From TrEMBL:
Organism this protein belongs to: Scopulibacillus darangshiensis
CDD domains: PBP2_LTTR_substrate (cd05466)
One GO CC term, this protein: protein-DNA complex
Protein name (record): DNA-binding transcriptional LysR family regulator
Family that this chain belongs to: Belongs to the LysR transcriptional regulatory family.
Claim: Transcription regulation is one of the keywords in the record: yes
PROSITE patterns recorded: HTH_LYSR
A Gene Ontology molecular function term of the record: DNA binding
Amino acid sequence: MRLLEYALEVYRHKNFTKAAGHLHIAQPSLSKQIAKLEQELGVSLFYRGHGAVEPTPDGVRFIEQAEKILNMRRSLEREMHERKEGIGGDLTIGTTAITGGHVLPPILRAFTEQYPNVRVRLVEEATAKLTELTAKGFIDVSILALPVEDARLTTKTMLTEPLYLVLPRTQKPWMSKILQGLNSFQEASVSLRSLSSSPLILLKQGFGFRRTVLELCAESGFQPQIAYETSSIETAQSLVMNGLGVTIVPEMVLRRDLERKLHYVKLDSNPTRTLVFAMNRERYLSMAAKALIKIHEEQGGVNNGGE
């Protein structure tokens, strides 16, 4: 197990000296241990040159399996500890910043009241990064939007909510006649295709909601004219408020306090997005993670339309 950990640190740091520092051992000792491992295996695990240390094809396979073995060990240790001690230790939750800010606070408030001895750590990243960290076992449970296509993950439905078009309240030259007319009707709805010639404000690459919006546009038969890309739905709404384009948002982020400047319009196809709890399929799910999911369910969160 120790040698597997050594090889993984070299792979992660791509440098023997940095890996040795992280492991708190001498660099010559680490190099010697890796060389001994390679001799026992009969293959070279790393290319050693003047630049970054890279894995060989055999090394890539070794690292893949080593990660699985070490994850299984950590899962087993955690399960045995919980069988003895009950709920405790750490709980790492992954989420995108905006989604986490809206759905997590009431769940965490109830969770920390019931389990004050559990240390909760939040990891805020883009969807692609969260998926990888969860699949590799660095995150216990992540809140992601469907589809989750990584076969290493399993999911449990959290909630489903409608999506809305966001328009500026003041008319702009780029607005079609259909969009200009919407501001006269509070309960209006519009087809997604009517946005085909409008500047669209979209989340950056790596965010799952970006893919959701692009797929909806494709299903409506057009490729959107992307004007701005941002990592924040709040920023996207601010850009709309200043007349720089339109955007699409899930219900949970509607800014009711800005309805004099923003107009939220229903889409006639009634698109939705579904959030799920995502977990590593082969990793032991801690009692703390199970308790978090149960608390959400007790709060009436499943399929509640985001309310």
